[in-house]
Amino acid sequence: MNTILKWAGNKSAVMLELAKHLPHGSRLVEPFAGSCAVMMATDYPEYLIADVNPDLINLYQKIVANPYQFLDRAHYLFNTCNSEHGYYDSRDTFNHDKDSEWRAELFLFLNRHGYRGLCRYNQKGQFNVPYGNYKKPYFPEREILAFAEKAKRATFLCAGYQDTLKQLKAGDVVYCDPPYDDTFAGYHASGFNKTVQQRLASNLIAVSSQFPVIASNSDTPYIREIYQGFDVRGLITKRSIGVSAGESKQANELILSKRPSISFSARDYANGLDRSIVSRVVQ
């Protein structure tokens, strides 16, 4: 199953390998929602899907609330605005009317019509991806309907990873797919530098004492250093963002995983012990 959005780092191509590292659990928690490829390719009873980008979460919430209304409006944009002028006019509306009731549909339109499906904002928080000049961008109707059905199991949260990790409860499995080290990280105005990579790793190390944690990232010396103690699996993937049209290049990535080193009884969890500990370690 393809995803609704074109997305840098989409995990669809590596799910066969990634799935081997995702243990059973009652809920999968993803602090970096991305394209929701992992949610769509797995079968957990519940999902907590979070992201700091409000446009991404708004899109998913809007589809869940009324998928057929969303489809009608998105079809209209795809059918009437597929030109350079239509793209930039839509982008201006998106950037200057933050309260537009069409914002979710505009986000999908910009994603599918913009250059290589990039999601990029400037320091003012304005979407600034140029026109992609595609003759007939793909309209993901089948993917939208499949997502709406699967998302009945999901809760969507606009929050950073620290606040998301505070929501962990017994039976959860954590999967993190943050912006990669030494790659483009301008998916939102706040960015994602090495300091944030270090802070994320420290938080994941802390919660791994109670919950299975799996993370993806670039295969760099820095990532291997800050995730010491994790099991490491290397893989080679294709990456096309940032290279000339028609070309692609390979990238070395890591799947990092760590299982709980201590366990708590059902009574401990019922008494809220896991929440109190998590609240302390993710500050």
Q: Main attributes?
A:
283 residues, alpha/beta, Rossmann fold, 7-stranded mixed sheet, 12 helices, 38% helix, globular, disordered C terminus
Describe this structure in words.
With 283 residues, the protein is an alpha/beta fold. It has a single domain (1-283), classed as Vaccinia Virus protein VP39 (Rossmann fold, 3-Layer(aba) Sandwich). 38% of the residues lie in helices and 16% in strands. The chain contains twelve helices and seven strands. It has helices at residues 15-18, 37-41, 54-65, 67-80, 84-96, 103-113, 141-150, 161-165, 194-207, 221-226, 266-270, 273-281, and strands spanning 27-30, 46-51, 154-158, 172-176, 213-218, 231-239, 249-258. Strands 3-2-1-4-5-7-6 form a seven-stranded mixed β-sheet, sandwiched between helices. Helix 2 links the parallel strand 1 (27-30) and strand 2. Helix 3 (54-65) crosses helix 4 (67-80) and helix 5 (84-96) packs across helix 6. The longest helix is centred in the N-terminal third of the chain and has 14 residues, at 67-80. It is globular and about 55 Å long. The chain starts with 14 loop residues before the first helix and ends with a helix. 37% of the residues are buried. Mean pLDDT is 88; it is low at 242-247 and 264-283.
